[in-house]
Amino acid sequence: MSSTDAKVEQMFQILLDPEEKGTEKKQKASQNLVVLAREDAGAEKIFRNNGVQLLQRLLDTGETDLMLAALRTLAGICSEHQSRTVATLSMLGTRHVVSILGVENQAVSLAACHLLQVMFDALREGVKKAFRGKEGAIIVEPGRELKVLISNLLELLTEVGVSGQGRDNALTLLIKTVPRKSPKDPDNNLTLWVIDQGLKKILQVGGSLQDPTGELQVTANSCMNASILLSKLFDDLKCDAERENFYRLCENYIKSWFEGQGLAGKLRAIQTVSCLLQGPCDAGNRALELSGVMESVIALCASEQEEEQLVAVEALIHAAGKAKRASFITANGVSLLKDLYKHSDKDSIRIRALVGLCKLGSAGGTDFSMKQFAEGSTLKLAKQCRKWLCNDQIDAGTKRWAVEGLAYLTFDADVKEEFVEDGAALKALFQFSKSEERSVLFAVASALVNCTNSYDYEEPDPKMVELAKYAKQHVPEQHPKDKPSFVRARVKKLLAAGVVSAMTCMVKTESPVLTKSCRELLSRVFLALVEEVEDRGVVVAQGGGKALIPLALEGTNTGKTKAAQALARFTITSNPEMTFPGERIYEVVRPLVSLLHLDRSGLQNFEALMALTNLAGISERLRQKILKEKAVPMIESYMFEEHEMLRRAATECMCNLALSKEVQDLFEAQGSDRLKLLVLYSGEDDELLQRAAAGGLAMLTSMRPSLCSRIPQVTTHWLEILQALLLSPNQELQHRGAVVVVNMVEASREIASTLMESEMLEILLVLAKGEEGPITRAAAACLGKAVEYGLIQPNQGGK
Questions:
Q1: Which residues contact 732 (CB under 8 A, 6 or more apart)?
Q2: Average pLDDT of the segment spanning 419-432
Q3: Predicted model pTM
Q4: Where in the cell is it found (predicted)?
């Protein structure tokens, strides 16, 4: 029974034996099958031994453990293998595989989601690993299979009887697989096909209310997931004609529910508009402008039915996102929202009305002079939000709106100060960010960005401010409590409250709600937290270093840059091997190299060079990783920079990289001025630049003696530069100069002769008589070699 074939057969026998139900033996067999399927050879064995049909029998049992084992084994069989994936779909039936997503059991639905993701990757990417048999003989058109899978997912969205979790998983799969991975890919046909075939189905999920009778079953996150998918599809469109088609389909769908469907139809239409406003807001804004929509929203806010009020108030809140409409609602809807807030006996309505007021109250952003409400009103609203946030009796959905309110109100510096002083509110916020309520992530990140002032802010030019005042134009004013000293104090309080561990949990979230823009906000906060050197240890200790790597590798360009800059600051001030243990240290290189691009700021370039200098000094493997990322040409270009700090940092980095054979080859190449630059920099007035260049020169001449003979050829001032190094009051420079001279003397008698005929001999004689140390030893070694060549003779004492 030792052969793999026999073991596979034995495991299936145990799993399908009704007498073995629930036994430890059965559990062990299922685990073995999953482990075996993870290896390509094992997966092939299971596949060839009629494994897919046997796994189908396991799926049909309805037992959770057996279904999970079967789905995980199938994922191993299909992983990165097109032909097996197509064969599996053919045997099981695409419809049957997709239908497993809709089961009530959350674990089984997630396992089915993972299997479908593996299948999508296999069909899209093909085989990444080594050649695996006659792939081409089986696969005719994987694109057709891909469309069949997506078509079944779209059908699942609107099927009655599908669980809310299953619907969310289907939306997540569509988010990950339909839009193009890069704008450089010209083919967006799959997106256009999905919009034509399934836009109405996606809108139907987005417009569904939670827990109504006879409706589609949805979760609290379904509307947000639908919004994200709609946003991704809209962003994937390339021209105005495609966007117009998207608008038209959305408007026709909303009209179909709004006209002639009674109150229930109007509610669904308004909920769909809310969904669009949270995703592709241009489409949502156009829908709001349809005849009667905005009027119905205002009218339904006054309804006596809680469900109708909820839908209308939420739509009003989302509609207030545009400054132009916010001013319209401020004029027409504030009294309505105030009445709801003061007189409604339901917390769910009151809190939404409060968020509407918060959003309108923050329409001026950080501009101190643009106050929407009377002095002190925003502080009262914020206090109520914090009170709801700390109330454990309130459900998660209602608490989310309290966080939304704070996200808007924290534009006001007075609110920020009160919020960071409230330890209970901060603790409640961080606990809530770790909960299952994923749609709160963006609001939490927004509130933290506001508290740390980590949004982009440029100090206005005083002359332009004077000009604007003269022209009677509005000039934004900064709040007195938004000055750097207040911001630093707030950062300290957030760190003490445990903000880093909360943000680390947010980064780990496997949910489409963690969008690129949400990642960017988290990156901004991390960068603000590591501004002060003394705070960096706390951030690292709470897992900040680990959390920043995924933020630096995926997200918006701004977000990736901010995260990379935070990584650079860690690498500069702490031991990289401790901050990024194990293999993680190699993942840091690419984000750091990205900061060297010319479109980054001078500070970002400087910090990246310093961080790479530290990494290059650790190991050869890290140096090879830096070379592989094509960093050397960029580092060399910064060696020619006018800014002395950039020039120095680049020279130091190159000095450490010179330990690698490939970099030494570059310096040795004929027609290269690299060596000349190092020699000239060794004679510069900037002592730190001198030290870096002389260190690189000492290292290169030690490892490549052939370079010694080229130093006199690169510049006529070489002798003066070396003499200046040896006469420097700085012992570090003296030592580096002495090592270069030793290497040159040992390299050839001719160079030694030139050196001994100059004033260098007297300098070496003086240095050799100094206190015992590396400089004295190097000088003595030079003189000893000169004696050996017969260029000088020892004095009568034999010294």
A1: 691
A2: 88
A3: 0.76
A4: Cytoplasm
